[in-house]
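Hello Y.,

Per our agreement to keep a running log of every chain we model this quarter, I'm adding this entry. I've kept the format consistent with earlier entries: sequence first, then predicted structure.
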Amino acid sequence: MVKPLSAAISSILLLSVISGNARAQDAEAVAESETKDSSAVDLDNVVVTGTRSPKAVDKIPGAITLVSKEEVQRSLVLTEDATAVLARSVPGYAESSQAMSNTGENLRGRVALRLFDGVPQGSPLREGTRNATFTDMGIVGRIEVINGPSASEGIGAAGGIINYLSSSPTKEGNEVTLISRYSTQFGDDSDGWKLGLNFARKDGDFDMLASASIIDRGISYDADGRRVGMNTSGSVADSEARNLFLKAGYNFGEDGTQRIEGSVSHFKIEGKANYIQVLGCRPEEFAICGETRTNTSERGQIFGSKAAFNDFKQYQLSYTHFDFFGGTLVLNGYKADQAMRYLVENSSDRQDPLIAPIGSIYDQSEIRADKQGLRTSWTRPSLFSVDGLELRVGLDLVKDTAEQRLALTNRVWVPPMEYKSQAPWLQLSWDVGPLTFSGGIRREDGEMHVDDYTTTWFRDRRFVRGGTLDYQENLVNAGVVWRINEGFSVFGSYGEGFTLANVGIPLRNIQCSNDSPEGTQPDGCPNDPQISVGDLLDLNAIVVDNTEFGFNWRGSRGSLSASHYDSKSDFGQSLSIDPVTNDFVLLRAPVRIKGYELSGDYRFSEKWKFSAVYSHTRGETAFWSADAAGRYPAGGLNRPMGVLDINPDKFAWSVTWNFVPRGDITLGATTLFSRKLSGTDVRPFDGQRFTFTEETHGYTLFDLGMNYETERWGRFSLGIENLLDKQYILSWSQPPGGFQNYWAGRGRMVSLTHTIKF
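Predicted structure for the entry above:
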């Protein structure tokens, strides 16, 4: 069951999920200590993301979406895609890309920080749009989504936080779960299968979870029966994924007041390289290619190419003391190694005449990101013996490194970057009758270092002197929640988020100035002045100011939540496509995003339940950024932000019928609405005129899921994704600008799943 709650979260929710699963087991006790209201004991209304210890959502001023294990399992009946459940249940989350890449997937128009048990996936230094495919969804116990900019987890949460929490054993003794799955689109080589085994053990103070799975996916087909093109940023089609996960914890000390827990995760998804992409033809290119067609895939391999993959390894060790000087102390250390390889391409920016003739080089981009960190927190309730006054304080340390290479020719594309940060934080909350006041501050004190490097031939082999950039920012938040009665509350909040721009893009795109001799390809830009990393304005941090207000109503049969937000950044980022390389270009200019969201559910009876979410988001930025030489400032907010940054309006609903005590059927639909955007501006400095137009066509997809639990033979599930076999183009793929991203969505897929426990 999804419980999208807009009940209370400081838009900046300082603090992180550390040892989240261990504390989730103690959430009920903590919730009871916070309030005498029995509703606070409901674990569906308690979060740990952004609060570092269990906190009732009706005391947090902002919008939260809680995706329960049951809702995750319902989504898995339809598809193994890790973001599909978010697209259906989180109001401000964009459509799923249906790929290994999460290009176009954002939260409230900004990049979200994705966590797995509190550990960041991917790196803000080089956002490779691959950080949403990092584990087997079969081990996910629930997902906590903090909607809106937040500094609670450090850098990277301009749009919010999405934290996938692994399951924890709940029953004494041993429990083995065997999961098998078969899926097909009834097309050649479209069959896929999964085999997973989970072992859970709980023996007094000791508990553990061990999991292993393998997922084999066939090629995807659209509703017209054409193979869907291989996504150049990474496809889940024609791939194999293997996952190993182990987590163990032990409670010790007097009355079990201390706990130590460790976990290891290794996930790798790798393309099988049976297909190559065949580019399509957009409607506006009809005169060139004579027909309109989407990208497709044909059997074959490009000589020398390697398989695309995500290879994510993660290690954690945490210590918790529940009675440390009257509070709860948590120490959590982690290490994560992440590697991402993309499909082979022969685009212009891969070429180098010193290696081979222009147009003959096929190369593959590969990003490597490694991070290690230590997170600490101490939570003290009843501070100074004042009931309802709570202090949360801690220090976060992190070291994050990332680089991007052209793997087949071993060339530097984005030089190694290293970011170090020390971030002390403090948060106070005070319950005064029906009111909860909260506020806090986080001091982000970091530095990024880049060594000397030389750009590729396509960027003129320009030498760039390295350097160290400092990032210091005080990030504050404040909010209030008023619980008007037992079921109705309103909230308002202000918070600041902090992140780095996708700095790898401007670093790799440095080239000679326009004053270089026309028609030449300089070697090292001898006519240009020396440039260093510190000269690049595009490397400046993004600080987001967010104001939000809303309400939350919960009754005996249903709930209704709504929130309105206004998010501003004086030096933000937006994406466009380079018509030469068909790759992304980063624009650094002011950004303002506004929107509202609604979510609700209603249970008509014990057998029937209806749920729905709606979101409306609009963003504006400038047509040009400030001139590096200081000749003119950035433009005004006259350029609408398109689908690469902000999703069209979305309405998703589902109806669940428990037709028998052990069986249920869920019919759901997701609608993305059509949208037209346009804007113009003239730059006073030189009279240059800028225009922007974009039109996207909406669509509605229906899904059907069925489950039946037998007493002896386990649970049998049938899932039909895209029930009506609708032909459609993914929204973010519709606008012109890059012929390599013209993809249709997946057609009807039928899946059979069997789950049995011993």
